[in-house]
Amino acid sequence: MNIVLATSNNHKREEFSRILTGHKLFLPSELGLTFDFEETAETFTENSLGKALSLAKLVPKGYAVLADDSGLCVDALGGQPGVRTARYGMETFNRLLEAGERNEYLLSNLKHIVQEEDRSASFVCALSLVVSPYRIFTFCESVEGHIAYEQYGKGGFGYDPVFVVNAVGKTMAELTAAEKDLYSHRGRATRHLITLLGELSCI
Prior knowledge:
By secondary structure, the protein is of the alpha/beta class. The protein has a single domain (2-200), classed as Maf protein, CATH 3.90.950.10. The protein has 6 helices and 7 strands. Helix 5 crosses helix 6. Its cofactor is Mg(2+).
């Protein structure tokens, strides 16, 4: 299947490409499309679906659209950053922070929380696939973990250096690509997608 990703984030494309073998993935720019979507909804699924439906209006016939909205939810912060994960800290600094800056800002907001069990968090991924106006699918998955006391690891992107996956005791940034695909929120959601794509190919 030819699938256009509703993102310009090459890191996300790399992760999807590793898992969605056998399918051709494209960024909007590779089809000559300019795509921008303002995420204003209050849930990951609503944002994901909104992006997918918006891009689906632009892509040529024969292409499906896959949109992802992911975020970090920290229990001690009442679920923040949540759907505003990419914009975390903007209200304080009046600008969009770089990934490393966001991580440091998050750590500073948790510096008073010493116990590991009180630093619990989850990474959430909502995927939406639009095959046609009448074939629309959504998936949502998460992975449980906690926030480290400092940044660890060189891999991944975003909040990966500060999010410790409980199942392995390492940050996302310390995992190999294969480990991340196995444990991550995006990897888990994408495996649901693989099952669906297999079923669609039989229709």
